[in-house]
Design brief:
Elements lengths: L1 H36 L3 E7 L2 E3 L4 E9 L2 E4 L5 E6 L6 E2 L4 E5 L2 H37 L4 H33 L2 E3 L4 E6 L6 E2 L6 E5 L3 E8 L3 H6 L1 E6 L6 E9 L9 E8 L11 E7 L5 E6 L11 E5 L5 E5 L1 E5 L3 E6 L6 E3 L12 E8 L1
Parallel strand pairs: 1-23
Antiparallel strand pairs: 1-22, 2-17, 3-12, 3-16, 4-11, 5-7, 5-10, 6-9, 7-8, 9-11, 12-15, 13-14, 13-16, 14-15, 17-21, 18-19, 18-22, 20-21
């Protein structure tokens, strides 16, 4: 009985050891399977983005009229009426303001009176000249009297001519009492009001022409050459998805002493009525012909005696080595022109220790 009891205890001990060993083996298999299924290597990736080799530069500007005229009266006087308001559209020949015409009419009447007087004097002098000629032909007068009559007639003719010009000038001055628009445009400023006394040539009303609009921006000195030779486009804050072709029309010959920038004016031939004066515009400058490249960190480049390559990471965490075309090397980046697609994710660090057969886990990403 005692021996049988010892054998039973030994069998139970062996069975327990076997069960414990089986449990350890199964746990190890599960851990290996889990390790094999889950990505074992975390990686930092960079997203490929192609852009112009010389990056675009943008500047904020303002929509302005190409021609904005300060209009004023050609004669001095007192303002009688102002007939327009700011923002009002005007046509050619439309009255903008008028002066008090009392003094101008008196001057015109005075000139008319002088003209009639000069006409009478000329008639008398011409008759005296003719009589002198007739008497001289008959020998009844001297040459001195003949010359005196002729000189008086010439003076009368000159006085009549002067009086006639005076009438024309006073009539013109009377017409200048009404300030009229000489172009189709919009009133941008009114600097006068009824009762105000203005001088000749003083700015009264400012009118912007509808003919053409332009974007006015300040260009730094490092980009003056690109502004002259590059391609320019303009977008409006009110229409961010619409681009207007812009052409450089004028650039300041000297920099602004405060900002050290050059004032540039870009004409907008395609700007319609939807482009209003004073709108905020964004001017974009780029080189006329430039290659599209992508900049990536130097640590992403893999080259073990062969052509330069990059590790591409797909959505499942698998990596693929693809050769790329390198254009140049910078201090911290490599510039490529092809080999990988736009938006592809490439491993940015540790490519020399990466095993292409294992999956990776993306922990972060960089944008270049």
């Amino acid at each position: 009985m005692f021996v049988r009891s010892i054998f039973a205890s030994y069998n139970r001990l062996l069975a327990g050891i076997a069960l414990a060993f089986l449990a350890i083996v199964l746990a190890g298999c599960n851990e290996l399977a889990a390790d094999k299924a889950a990505p074992s290597r975390p990686v930092l990736v960079a997203t490929v983005h192609y852009e112009a080799e010389s990056p675009e530069r943008s500047f904020v500007g303002t929509i302005r009229p190409r021609i904005e005229t300060d209009m004023g009266f050609r004669v001095p006087g007192k303002i009688a009426k102002r007939l327009v308001e700011v923002g009002q559209t005007v046509d050619v020949g439309q009255p903008l303001a008028t002066l008090d015409e009392v003094d101008l009419r008196l001057q015109a009447e005075q000139a008319e009176a002088e003209f009639h007087a000069a006409t009478g004097v000329l008639a008398q002098a011409a008759a005296a000249e003719q009589r002198a000629k007739d008497l001289r032909a008959k020998g009844w007068t001297t040459d001195a009297q003949m010359d005196q009559a002729k000189a008086a007639a010439d003076e009368a003719r000159a006085r009549l001519n002067r009086a006639q010009r005076s009438v024309e000038l006073t009539n013109n001055s009377l017409s200048y009492a009404t300030l009229v628009a000489d172009t189709h445009g919009v009133v941008t400023a009114t600097l006068i009001d009824a009762g105000q006394v203005v001088a000749s040539g003083q700015t009264a009303i400012r009118v912007a022409r509808f003919a053409e609009k332009e974007a006015v921006v300040a260009i730094p000195e490092t980009l003056v050459a690109r502004a002259k030779d590059g391609v320019a486009t303009v977008t409006l804050w009110s229409e961010p998805n619409k681009k207007y072709v812009a052409k450089l029309r004028e650039i300041a010959p000297a920099a602004d002493p405060a900002t050290r920038t050059y004032l540039a004016k870009f004409s907008l031939p395609g700007a319609g009525e939807s482009v209003s004066l004073g709108m905020t515009a964004t001017l974009t400058l780029c080189d006329p012909a430039t290659e599209r490249v992508a900049r990536l960190p130097l640590s992403a480049l893999y080259s073990q005696g062969g052509e330069p390559s990059l590790y591409i990471v797909d959505a499942q965490g698998e990596v693929t080595l693809k050769p790329v075309t390198v254009k140049s090397y910078e201090s911290n980046n490599v510039v490529i022109t092809g080999g990988v697609d736009e938006g592809a994710r490439v491993v940015a660090l540790g490519v020399q220790k990466l095993d292409p057969t294992e999956k990776v886990r993306v922990v972060s990403s960089l944008s270049f």
